[in-house]
Amino acid sequence: MVVVVLGAPGTILRSVMRSKMTALLQQPGYEEERLQRVAEKLPCRDVQAGLLLSLMGQPQQYSFPSIFIYGHRASGKSHVLQVLLKELELPHATVSCVECVSVVLLFEQVLLSFFGCDAASLLPRSPSLSDFVRVYRQQCSQSPAKQTRYIVMEKAELLRDTDANLLPALLRLQELVEDNVTVILLSEIVWDKFRPNTGCFEPLLLHFPDYSKGELQQILSQDRHPSYSAEFYSSYINILLGVFYSVCRDLRELRHLAALNFSKFCEPLAEGKVKDTDTHKLWRNIEPHLKKAMQTVYLREVSSLQWEQMQQMEEKETGTVRGLSAHTHVELPYYSKFLLIAAYLASYNPARTDKRFFVKHHGKIKKTNFLKKNEKTSNHLLGPKPFPLDRLLAIFYSVVDSRVAPTASIFSQISSLVTLQLLTKVSQGDLLDAPKFKCAVSLDFICAISRTVNFEILKYLYDFL
Amino acid sequence: MSTSSVSKGCFVFKPSAKKKKTPSLKDYFIHGCEGAEDSETRFQLCQNLWDKIKADTEALQDELNRKILDSLLDFTRKCSTTRQHSDWAAQMRASEIPTAALVLGVNVPDHDMTFQSLSDLLQQSVSPHVASVQAKECGALKHLMKRVLERLMDTEVTLDDEEEEVTEQTSTQLHNSVHCSLETLCDWYIAKTKKSFSGTPGKKRSSPGRDDPQQPPVVIIFKDLEAFNPRVLQDFILICSRYIQRLPLMFIFGIATSPSTIQHMLPHSVSSLLCIELFQSLSCTQHLATVIDKLILTPDFPFKLSDKVMQVLISIFLYHDFSVRNFIKGIQLALVEHFHSQPLSVLCCKKKEALLNVMQLSHTDLERIRQLPSFKRYVEKQELQEQTNLTTDDTHLKEVCRKLIKDLHKYHKNYYPILRCLHTMTSALPRYPLGKQIRELHLICLEKTVWENEDYQSAMKLLKMLAKDELITLLQRCAEILQPVKSKKMKKARVHLEELLAKFRQLDTVAAETQSCVEDSLISPVKNLGKKTDLFQLQKTLLEMNETRRSKKLNPFELLRNEVVEFIDSLVKSHLSPPETQTLNEVCYYSSSTAVRRHLNATPRTSIQAALSSPYYYLQNNSLKSEEGSVSNAAPDICIAYKLHLECGRLINLYDWLEAYATVVSAAEGNHPDSDNFGKVDEVKHARFIRAVSELEFLGFIKSTKKKTDHVARLTWGGC
């Protein structure tokens, strides 16, 4: 390819770069112009796009029956495919598996986008896979594929939870329907976790690696603010990545954070304090702000809306907004507190120690016998153990300081603690027949609760003796 | 019923249209009512009172919720407007679903009302598209989808893979049933908004406050977030976020525990799709305090609760459920019970009505009045002539009753303002001798004479130590409380209070002059101190100083303060006497705490055990009477089986049990112990035993076990 360009040196460079990129995306059967557009829209993913294109071959050629693409969140899987299929105007159906609460939705969407709504209505109520194949073949004989048809399945890992025959069938759908169709599965996890134990057709595996720091910088710099120069925005992105790259490589999140904090970055510029080339001063201004953002808005401790409001407020007022996890206090009725305490004790103390803790005159229990070395300190590391209802109530009656009648509301409090997810029911079996529970609260939480009722829980915990 | 069929068989007859008339509320009330003659009036009174209480509490609820609902509405409006911005930042930002986390407290049943008014308000002022879902109806993702779609679109939504037989019936409606996906909702929404945008503007719901009539948000309320399956919720949010560009969705999470539960339920990948803002509602104890304030501490409602009933209701609230709704239900129960069981409750109404009703009292009613303990006490205090008059002359009694009713109303009119005054004075004292909350003080006053209480005396002592500015603010607040009360005594009290306040103000001007001389007297011995160095002299002077301080003449402020405290004390003594001392208090006060407790805080296990161990308690059959701890052998089979099982250990041998049972039953049949078939197990006894055992199993006392053949395991302990 010979490029002759007259003009500024920058344009030469750019056009050389472009020609280099399109060189990768060369595939007979597609218009040159379109391929170029594709390449422009897919920065830093040209290798993958090129590979995909060569796998797809020319539009009318048969392609490989199924391709499995995996890579982390926001590594451009869906984006690359969407751009390729849309720009090159290939017939395709994109289905998100999370949306397909039943297989019928999946079938319908595929038929709808290939053959129109008439085909979709041919499906019987609650169709099976063979119904789908039958309708597909019937339609396909009327309008055979001139180009390869693509079915893109996003979040394909959810296919594992559907009928056992769905995934193997999709992998060799080309054979089943005898049509030029390719199924592309997109997932965040590797193929090894998919393989059914009955065996199946092996798809072609394609990995999308994470974007490197440089690539992230390049991509993020593209969507600059219209009223600022590209260099200025690029330096902003550089600072942003310096703070966030170590914790977050999710492009989507980074773009979101960039948008949220950009106005703060521009503030000294608007006030006329700093010139837009003075990156050091700008960095000094924005860095603590970004650090704060990492602890709050990135973790969704405060919402993006609140974050924007906080930026507008004065520095001293911002202290009033507390994050979500700062609110851990739960108000409970008096007996519910004791029930929860009893549940915690039952979950973290070995059952044989109950006598020592809760019987007034427990007689002599040898200390060496009582304190077994390996058992001690391990209970809190092992997590809560299940306990039967009887034990919970027995401990409850001994820790609560007054006589409590076994009223219906005591029992209903136990079940409301379960619905509040402070207790969890372990055995799904018969409720009449000795239900078992686990206590699902943390030590800090239970300490706070027992402080409100003047109960020293640490004295009753085996691990802290 | 006859059929035209010639063949034999079972025929199903649908019940005919004209059903038996179900008895109305009124009939239920009148049936078995104490003192039936004026039961209708009492029913009417009860009904009116309850309607008023209900309306008042609902208004109160709305009032309390208003603040939080307003901020929530603001949030929804703000969200729906920011969505339309098309500046750079809005384009770059990931489009999050605006989410309001509404923390409502652990009393989940109470939330229904809040959510109801919330969704009503939202529909009125923000968006017509509001759907609320509960966890129990959304076990799986498709159910959640179905509910959301149904509630938003008001149509049948089919789920395809279930309810085959149902669909056959509804096949006629198939044309308006739709697939259960958000795509459908999206299309529907676009069609809907287009229609309302281009369509008849006159038909459109007119709401000036709405910012953007074309794009009202679609609000989905999750009533009980904790109970939702996290998996379902995550998937639903993931799906919704795919459509957020086309469909302006918005979530409201009802949270019972704490907001951090969101982070427990949703991973970062999902919670990053939400823009969560927190809204904290009023705590339920504050809510209860306002309800008590508006409903109980007011002379407006003639119906009153005695101390014990109050105690029961409040302890159920604090110890068991934190539910204001249940508290009000408790009041309702007491109200109905009172009007149902107390014939004289006909006088429990507004003063004018009550005075009229007194004149309508029948002779039996008047006899009932004469039997009232409080009236008897009243009679004893009268002179002999008056006593005979009261017991014999009905018309005279009616006159006296009118006076007594008036007195009772006056008592209530004065009681509550003074109670509030006393509460304002004492609620800020260190260690709260008379309680932090006004309800505690109210309970003390109801129970017995408050001024004989030790805590009251210590409170008065503490009052005598208050600083001036504190005292003045407290007095001012008291005066404010007394301000709106229309009663001669209260007006007088207020005037007196104002006078005292004025005196305090005068003190300020006088104080400047007197201060110097007071200081002189104090300083003089100290001055002497400096001169003498003798130890003995020093001791002497110190003692002297101590003496002078103790016997020192009170300064004008202290005098005035004592006067104030005495004034408060006199008010308390004249107005806060317990209601039992009032004649005819039984008319207004409901005092059967056991009935309330039995109904509201039931003990099913105790009742079952009572029934099984002493069947006489429920059956009231004389042949079942037996001494403590034993069961008559004529008792029902299950009681005998229960009694025998109490004597066993963890595992019960069924055969031994059967033998023992047969022996007891034979004795009951009158067989002689020496006869041949005494204690023999025949078929009937065997069957009866089996039935008793399976009934016990059903009640949860025993269960079958695999540990040992022919044995059952006991599930309860004690009792023997």
Write up this protein.
Chain A: It is found in: Nucleus. Chain A: Keywords: ATP-binding, DNA replication, Nucleotide-binding, Nucleus. Chain A: It holds the Pfam family ORC5_lid. Chain A: Its main location: nucleus. Chain A: Residues 41-184 form the Orc1-like AAA ATPase domain. The complex is a heterodimer of chains A (465) and B (720). By secondary structure, chain A is of the alpha/beta class. Chain A has 3 domains: 45-207, Rossmann fold (3-Layer(aba) Sandwich); 213-326, no CATH class; 334-464, no CATH class. Chain A has 21 helices and 8 strands. Chain A has helices at residues 9-24, 32-41, 46-56, 77-87, 103-115, 117-122, 129-142, 166-171, 173-177, 213-222, 230-244, 251-270, 279-295, 304-312, 334-348, 354-358, 367-370, 379-382, 389-399, 408-419, 443-452, and strands spanning 66-70, 92-96, 149-154, 181-187, 204-207, 387-388, 423-425, 436-439. In chain A, the strands form 2 sheets. Chain A has a 5-stranded parallel β-sheet, sandwiched between helices. Chain A has a 3-stranded antiparallel β-sheet with strand order 6-8-7. The longest helix of chain A has 20 residues, at 251-270. Chain A is flat. In chain A, 34% of the residues are buried. Chain B is α/β, with parallel strands linked by helices. Among the domains of chain B are: 93-159 and 177-193 and 213-282, Rossmann fold (3-Layer(aba) Sandwich); 288-504 and 575-587, no CATH class; 604-714, no CATH class. Chain B is built from 30 helices and 10 strands. Chain B has helices spanning 25-30, 39-82, 88-92, 111-125, 141-153, 164-169, 182-198, 230-243, 260-265, 268-271, 284-295, 307-321, 324-341, 351-360, 363-371, 373-381, 384-392, 394-426, 438-447, 454-463, 468-482, 488-531, 535-551, 556-575, 593-600, 604-613, 616-619, 637-646, 654-668, 683-699, and strands at residues 97-103, 130-133, 218-222, 249-255, 274-280, 304-305, 589-590, 651-653, 702-704, 711-714. Chain B has a 5-stranded parallel β-sheet with strand order 2-3-4-1-5, sandwiched between helices. In chain B, strands 8-10-9 form a 3-stranded antiparallel β-sheet. The two termini of chain B are 55 Å apart. At the A-B interface, α5, α12, α14, α15 and α20 of A face α2, α3, β1, α5 and α8 of B.
